[in-house]
Design a protein that fits this description.
The complex is a heterodimer of chains A (270) and B (345).
Chain A (H helix, E strand, L loop, with lengths): L18 H21 L5 H23 L2 H32 L3 H7 L6 H9 L1 H17 L7 H29 L3 H17 L12 H9 L1 H15 L4 H27 L2
Helix pairs in contact in A: 1-5, 2-3, 2-6, 3-6, 3-7, 3-8, 3-10, 6-7, 7-10, 7-11, 10-11
Chain B lengths: L13 E12 L2 E12 L3 E5 L6 H8 L7 E6 L2 E2 L4 H7 E4 L11 H11 L4 H14 L15 H12 L6 E5 L7 H16 L3 E6 L2 H7 L2 E6 L2 E7 H8 L2 E7 L5 H12 L4 E3 L4 E6 L4 H11 L4 E7 L3 H9 L5 H4 L2 H15 L1
Parallel strand pairs in B: 3-8, 3-9, 6-7, 7-8
Antiparallel strand pairs in B: 1-2, 1-4, 4-5, 9-10, 11-13, 11-14, 12-13
Helix pairs in contact in B: 3-4, 8-11, 9-10
The chains are: A mainly alpha (270), B alpha/beta (345).
């Protein structure tokens, strides 16, 4: 306040934000998200416990029935449970975004001359930390139970990045629910209803050929199945095929549709 | 003036120009045709009770809310057509601190600075500088959860000043603050204007508007019901206000006539207490009135002469009292009442 403020009329201003600025703003917002996670580490409970419990549970329950024994089931279930766990985790992104948006600080974000997408993209970006934790823990649990991916560590890493990227894309759907929903708990509700059939009506847990024909049709269409297959090919065989391409295109399409409508809905909120 | 320049505003002297702003929420016309003109380098006070439309008006001017009708421009830039330019010219401090509860004061300011395009080192420097200026250095590393209301407000205002905006919106900057903190806030606002800023502030307190504002708009039910300098507004209410209660209710009308005769003003009756209130230009006149009342044989139960409160400004200008309390929850109502007493009694 010691220096004189430049009068409004003399400032050179422009009415749009550049792509570079959007990226910088989003990264700053992601930094804010990380600080928040650091401050409240208890919000990482779900991503820590869920992979451990689910991996143990599903492997020992279904292992014998589906693949004869647990060892043979691991290459099937670990990619399946990985996709299911990480994508379920992305629901929390929508719920937390909803809670965050109730706070006054979002008013300030809206009043700043920053890219409109940044508060949302940043929050979603910070949550990739959660997906990474869930991914690492799932692989570690598999390793402890005796799973040794044929593809080797390099392909496991590629698969991990693929799952995290796709979950980030899918989290835009839940972010949209988060922006339009009235309460945080309703976000959880809508998201679970959408996600439960999608993850279970897939090839994540059981071979598709054991299902009735009409169901096979849906399961083979289901993008989750393609993602699971892509991960299996990567970690078990070290190959990249059509499923990988299909998953990436699917992720891109989701972002292309949901990012703009989420930002629009966010701008409309009072 | 360069007419062709895109950035050149049409009229450089107005920081804010609003014409017929309307915002409807369902059935409720929260803002119902507000006109405002705020000169550059001044403090402009928007005075009104809760629910009068003050916050909604600010939110529209600050591009947080899209007006349903009407238009507004900030330094000549339309809030709907050029929102991103407007955002570069304003700082907004909301009624409820718009800072991040789970982070520390420094982290908050650093993040806002980074968002405004400052580099890493610059942002740290700016944060430290502002914390120093607002007396928050000691609390810099603590999470905001442990901040008092006053500290939060100060941090909030500090955050609005990072980019040194030429126009600052302050939505009830002192509501809920103790008198000492309130005075500090007032000093800060005065310093801001000295350094060249324009300030639009909303308040429920006439005294606050009186202390700070160059011009005042009184707003009620979403409309500007009076506008002018502090002196003009005060003259319409009187420098002080008289309150009378007679012992026998049947004397009320008689007493009222005498009040109007002697003081030569319009009086009002507060229904609930059968109290007569009237603006008074000169306290000296009260002697004439009291003598007249004794001669007429009207015994008084209560008599006081006070500085005008917001209630009286409202009563005089709108013909009805401040009605918000009924709509509030008991809790909030108590809070508002408590502050009124602190300010005026």
């Amino acid at each position: 306040m010691n220096t004189l403020i430049k009068p409004g009329a003399e400032r050179r201003l422009k009415n749009h934000t550049s792509f570079g600025q959007s990226v910088r703003n989003s990264l700053t917002m992601a930094y804010r998200g990380l600080l928040k996670i650091k401050r409240t580490p208890e919000q990482l409970f779900d991503v820590t416990l869920q992979p451990i419990i689910f991996t143990l549970m599903f492997t020992y329950i279904f292992g014998g029935a589906i693949s004869g024994n647990v060892q043979n089931y691991l290459p099937v279930i670990i990619p399946g449970i990985l996709v299911q766990t990480v994508i379920t985790t992305s629901i929390v992104t929508g719920v937390q975004l909803r809670e965050d948006m109730e706070k006054g600080v979002f008013d300030r974000f809206k009043s700043l001359p920053i890219s409109r997408i940044a508060p949302l993209a940043g929050a979603l970006l910070a949550d990739t930390v959660r997906y990474t934790i869930a991914t690492v823990l799932t692989f570690v649990m598999g390793y402890i139970m005796g799973y040794r991916p044929e593809g080797g560590i390099g392909y496991v890493a590629i698969a991990a990045v693929l799952v995290i990227a796709c979950s980030w894309a899918i989290s835009w759907i839940f972010a949209f629910f988060g922006v339009i929903a009235r309460t945080a708990s309703s976000v959880q509700g809508i998201s679970m209803i959408a996600l439960f059939p999608l993850t279970f009506l897939s090839n994540a847990f059981v071979p598709v050929n054991t299902m009735p024909d009409w169901l096979q049709w849906f399961v083979n269409m289901n993008p989750i199945s393609h993602l699971v297959t892509a991960v299996r090919n990567l970690v078990n065989a070290g190959t990249m095929g059509g499923d990988l391409v299909f998953s990436l295109i699917g992720a891109a399409v989701i972002v292309a549709i949901f990012a703009p409508i989420t930002v629009r809905a966010y701008m409309r909120r009072t | 003036m360069n007419q062709n320049s895109i950035t050149g505003p049409h009229n450089e002297s107005w920081a804010i120009e609003a014409h017929g702003l309307v915002k409807t929420f369902g059935e409720n016309r929260a803002v119902d045709g507000v006109n405002l003109k705020v000169g550059t380098g001044t403090i402009y006070g928007v005075l009104g009770p809760n629910g009068a439309g003050k916050t909604t008006t600010i939110r529209m001017l600050a591009t947080l809310l899209r007006p349903d009708a009407g238009s507004a421009s900030i330094f000549g830039h339309d809030v709907v057509k050029e929102p991103q330019i407007v955002r570069q010219l304003i700082g907004v401090t909301g009624q409820y601190a718009s800072v991040d509860e789970s982070l520390s004061a420094t982290e908050n300011l650093v993040i806002f600075s980074r968002l405004l395009g400052l580099g890493r080192a610059e942002a740290r420097h700016k944060a430290a500088e502002l914390l120093e200026e607002f007396g928050l250095t000691e609390a810099a590393k603590r999470p905001l959860k442990h901040f008092s209301g006053g500290m939060r407000r100060r941090l909030d205002l500090a955050a609005s000043l990072i980019a040194q905006p030429p126009l600052i919106f302050l939505d009830e900057p002192t509501t809920g603050l103790d008198p000492r903190t309130r005075n500090q806030m007032w000093d800060t606002i005065r310093r801001l204007v000295k350094s060249g800023s324009t300030v639009l502030l909303t308040t429920q307190y006439l005294e606050e508007a009186d202390q700070l504002a160059d011009r005042i708009a009184v707003i009620d039910h979403g409309r500007v019901v009076a506008e002018g300098t502090v002196d003009e507004l005060k003259a319409s209410v009187g420098n002080s206000s008289l309150q009378l209660r007679v012992q026998n209710p049947q004397d009320v009308e008689m007493a009222r006539r005498m009040v109007e005769q002697v003081l030569k003003v319009q009086s009002n009756i507060l229904a609930e207490a059968e109290k007569i209130t009237a603006p008074m230009g000169n306290v000296h006149q009260v002697t004439d009135l009291l003598i007249a009342l004794r001669e007429a044989g009207i015994p008084l139960a209560e008599m006081s002469v006070q500085k005008p409160t917001l209630d009286e400004v409202f009563l005089t200008i709108t013909g009805h009292g401040v009605q918000e309390d009924a709509a509030l929850t008991p809790n909030e109502s108590n809070k508002v009442e408590g502050q009124k007493h602190e300010y005026f009694n």
